[in-house]
Amino acid sequence: ATEQTALITLFGATGDLASRKLYPALFNLYKKGEIKEHFALIGTGRREWDDDKFRSVVSDSVKGAADSDQQVSDFASHFYYKSHDVTNPEHYKVLKGVADQLDAKYDLKGNRIFYISLAPRFFSLVANNLKQQNVFSDNGFNRLIIEKPFGHDFESAQELNDSLSSAFDEDQVFRIDHYLGKEMVQNIAALRFGNPMIESVWNNKFIDNVQVTLAENMGVGERAGYYDTSGALRDMVQNHIMQILSLLAMDEPNKYKDVEIRAQKVKALQSLHIYDEDEVAKNFVRGQYGANGDQKDYRHEDNVPEDSNTETFVAGKLEFQNNRWAGVPFYVRTGKLLADKFARIDVVFKKPALDDFARANGTAPQLLPSVLTIKIEPDSGFEMQLNKKHVGQGYTTDSFKFTHDLTDSEMKEVPLPYERLINDAMKGDHTNFASWAEVAQAWKFVDQIEKFWNSKKADFPNYTPGTMGPKAAEELLTRSGRNWAFRA
Ligand code: NAD
After folding, report:
1. Active site residue 240
2. Is 12 in the pocket of ligand 1 (CB under 6 A)?
3. For residue range 229-274, what is the model confidence (pLDDT) as tens digits?
């Protein structure tokens, strides 16, 4: 690998995300030679740590993946700590001083990445202080990586974006959606555009419906305080599911390059039909988990109000109004405490208009739809269900599956999502980041649902832990004679 040259200034370096995800990601990049000599990180946080304390925290978070102690200490030697109060402009001047020193020490060519991993209320404050206190370099690049959530609704997202844009241009901003860093999400494009056999049937002539399921089998746990202000729709649909949908629905970009890909994703999202109240009522289902054995119901979890109307489950039907997709429902569902933890995409193809084998036999139709499944996790791979002749006399049919799972050795090579995304940001590649136009469109869609839900008291709890959500989520499909491809 060619070594990337950059100084990362991390806001929130003492936080949970930093030690669970960011340091292990950077360590993998270090092990693979993507970052090496010309790399340094300034960690900031409220705590009064020094470099040694910081390095020992970083070391602890990566040593499980290390080849040797020496490797860990070499890596950690690139980490520096400054305690920092985001509200104090003077502190940014201190950061600038450290940045300039490290730039000289590691020959960083003025390449700077500012990574904001703080509570969202600080996002624009930090970005604007960086600009006003001139922490930027004037050679090299100055880029912003920003965590989720990007706003709470369209209005707040736009406010945040306007504010960020007074400090950073859109092409300097990298909005994290870690689903875009997942191997099998990135495989959507290869499967479609690498196989004319697939892409030529990727439309409403052959596809009956598309399903995206991101299921969790745990409750809210320690994130309850945050989760209760968000809910499944904002936490999972507005960002991850919308990104997956845009990759499934988009037209082929002229070039497989970030600018062209983003343009196609935006175009697809702009064709998304935005619902009015009646349509929301018909096409979206919310759920909240009840109790089951030792598992408390959501309203009795710690830090959740007893009258909480927050949904821990959502299922919905979306429609892209363009010639490729008109008439094809895109079903999505996600939630907490479901039957299992997994993420998958099922593309359900049309059946023949007539089941001729059944007609000839005078039996009930038995052809199943062909289903192409992209397994995102925990298993990563593809499945294709097709019909075949049932072995034996006569002529009836049953189905079989082609399966391809990534091998264990391939799985070991799969970069961590954050590893891939940080590397992309260092390279200046926006392919796997959400653009403002995409985020904006996703919020406009989601806001309509929130607005309708807020106007009505929910009938919660309405699903049992360990199931695939409320009954209405099944009915969303069965009312048009369809079914979820994955059922518990
Ligand atoms: P955290 O609460 O564990 O850490 C917060 C960090 O902010 C700490 O380093 C703290 O020192 C710093 N901080 C708080 N107030 C400050 C101030 N006034 N001045 C300077 N520093 C201050 O949070 P986290 O879980 O690491 O989350 C960080 C970001 O990542 C958030 O935007 C969150 O939404 C996002 N995120 C986290 C997760 C996760 O799994 N933890 C998942 C997705 C997104």
Report:
1. yes
2. yes
3. 999 999 999 999 999 999 999 999 999 999 999 999 999 999 999 9
